[in-house]
Amino acid sequence: MVDAVASQQQLHKILLSWDYFDLWKKCEGGGGVFDELKPVPQTFASVKDYQSIMEPLLLEECCAQIMRGVEEGEVMTPHPAVVASHEHRDDFLIVRLVLQAGVTESYTDNDLVLICKENPEAENVNTSLHALGFCEAHEGQQILRVKFFLVPSSQTGGARGAQRAKAMSAGLTSPSSCWWLLRLGNISTITREWTALQHAHLVPFMDILLSGKSRAAPASKHLDIPPGMRAAMERECNPSQMSALQAGLDGTPVVLIQGPPGTGKTRTILNLLSVIMNSAHKGSIALMNSVAASADKRAEAKSGLAALLPPSTAERERLRAAQCPWLEGMLLPDGSTANCRDHVKPYDPIPQGAGVHDDCFGLLRRVAPHRLGRNMGPKAHVLVCAPSNSALDEIVMRILRSGLMDKDGANFAPSLVRVGVRSHHSVAAVSLDTIVESRLGGAADKGGKGGSGSAGAQERDRMRVAILDEANIVCSTLSFAGSSVFFRLTRKFDVVVIDEAAQAVEPSTLVPLVYLVGDPVQLPATVIATRAVDQGYDCSLFKRLQTAGYPVKILDTQYRMHPEISAFPSLEFYQGRLLNGEGVQEETTQPWHQQPAFGPFAFYDVAGRESTPPGGASIMNKAEAHMVLVVYRELVHAFPQLRRTASVAVISPYKAQVKLLRDSFRTALGEDAARLVDINTIDGFQGREKDICIFSAVRSPAVIKKGGKRPGIGFVADERRINVGITRARCSLIVIGNIRALQVDGHWANLIQSAIERRCLYRPKPPYADWMAGVLAGTVVGPVELSEKEFAALEKSRARAAKKAEAARVRAGDYASLDIKEELGLDEQVGERGTSGGAGELENPGADEGAFGPDEEEGGEEEGDKPIQLDAAAAITADQLAAAAGGGGGGDGGGGGGGGEAAGPAGVQGGGGGGEEADEAASGREDGDAGGDDSDGDGGDDDSEGGGGGSGGKRGRGGRGGRGGRGGRGGRGAGGKRKTAAAAAEGGGDGGGGGAKAGGRGRKRAKG
What we know:
This protein is an alpha/beta fold.
């Protein structure tokens, strides 16, 4: 078996061998740790195949997290450090560094650090003397013990790297030498996921993970739902929920439960826990074919939970690695765990003055453990995990509020413990530290200080392990579940339930018997490395197994949304299979629905402009923010009951827009009134709901951008984020966005079409407050219809988006034959994707501890189609328009249409970029816009063949050619310099060529 310490040391050798500055240059150029990465397939041939694909992707993600922290200023200021002493351990150099008083508190165990001879933030820094290090421990107040790997290897960079390693080894072994130390981030999560991959061959059901196929259920069921509980559950559950509860009771090792919005996913999890708690036969419900059963024949003579207790520490370690490798604790360098301690500090303390009320201590009394031998028999030991603290705390609060169901269908309170940091103060009553301090009479160790600190620490550790062993249910984030306290448990977990499993990367879910609960059509796993995303690393285990054909239990009835809200997501994302619960329409119909502008669904077409705040990378839209405020003020003015309740939410994909909205609401309404409006990002609102949700889409790029690039709408086009964003509302959903910008995406185009068909598309005109007042008074036309040109543009966008979606489906491997692939013009390489920009912004209100970066993901700026600018011709004459249109590029190569300078005052409208196919490219102006005198041409479409760029104006540049799926970039369009209308049209014929040859396939060069 792969030793946990050895696997961690292997990872450290790889990471600490990296040349930080060389890697930085590679990443800036679009590269990374590896020259090539393999795409994640649906199935794997072997464990070795699995590891060979996943390990490089994990390392690529680690690299991206490091670089991202530096780019966004998340790293600390460099600190001076002096070498106190050193020692050699195996192949590593262990250095004790002395830092200024108080500085060591900024560093934590498992931090990755950069050490340089010169200040790394200085200009023209000498990069020849630097190395990456791993923080092992603190010694006293000023000493930090750091591990380095300075042995030349394949990662150190050849002769130059070997020379750097030799020089650094000499420098760091020189007593009193001075250095600069910079914290880059914590690699605890990366380390645990790496360990999981190294132990993948020990997972009892690895055959399922590799093949994506379920095992045949045993002839006899292992478990069954007690009659009393079944009768009670059948009264409150619909058939799809009951089917999900029944899954896995026949011994199926992996169970997938998909919970679309509003289908009672959290309630199903609680019922699932009730079933697990009360359906076990005498003893444990651990896997019957556990590796441990054959590893220790002596255990066969034992029964119940005792069968899982190996007689020796070594065997206990082997058992743990076999059953749940990812839950390996962080071992000490010598391999021991006896002195390991977790320093758990509350992230969200109980507010000042709130205190711990009597009710809180009542909860503490309620969590008295169900010890073995009680009349109900031994309970199962269940670990409940989620990728984020917010999702986990939602489950904990629901258990505290409503309890679980016992075998007779009555309510009971299980013994429950919440482990980890950053838990919400509302679950403090069941946090591990709170229970420990309560049992120790408030005399818990305070950081190891004081005369009895050491004894207090040991007693605290012993008590923590005992509490976790006794608890029925232990709740932890996926990251914290790998901490050392779990390693010391003597009672193993029988079942693991992972909520929001579609948001977890695959290595984090390598555990024994798993109920994966989530929805792959909602938010994806957070992956920062664009190159890893391009290879499918953001695909969760849930999604991969589902795609491979593994059976999924789907909750099909929603009880949250008014049917007018649920209609679109049901049709668009769930193939029309999401049903409405009985009575949901009556429960969600409200008085404000009498005003159509505030109906169950409305779309406000606001032609604002997006912008980036100074010094920021996120995006905001002031016009949309103003419209949001106007809608809210009119709502609460007409229906004052909304002013007194926190029933309204404002959701936006971008942090900058959220900040702008919060500032605007505080300024306009005051602190107290603004506090009643929940303004958050899509990621921050995952799993939550409100009566009224106002969604600000933000994206509204300029018609022509400097540089000739035609931006898409970024990650706003991600169907999973669209789904989450528009399914948070119970009674009313109001979407505010620019339809001309959004319609480039197929899902948005379909939503716009849905709004038109239902006559709930509004087109506000400034000043928005006057327009809104007129609509409500009936003096201004309310719902609008699109003009003939606008409708044609929308239909074309929908058709193009549908074709791109089909191409993406085929690239993902969902095609019947190579003929289909050839017809769509796709590359042979399965999984190839269009190009995108750099990593986007991330924000996680409940991020896992030990992770670099967090929950909100703002994707790169994809270059794609822009809608036809319908009003662009209004300012120029027909002759100028004809001249500007120019000749069309075209043909199989996807060449760009040209476009000269129009004869006239500005020459604003140039020829178009290349289309997806010959017929679109031929029309020139259809898909791209060349620049005017002072503008640059737009880029061609990034289609499968590479569209050519539109020509530039007199002082503009030609647009960048589209990046071809099969070929290289399309050629840049020629700059138009002719001065007459006729000459301009002639010049417009010089469209850019298509992409270069690739894969041995010749491609035609586009002609004007």
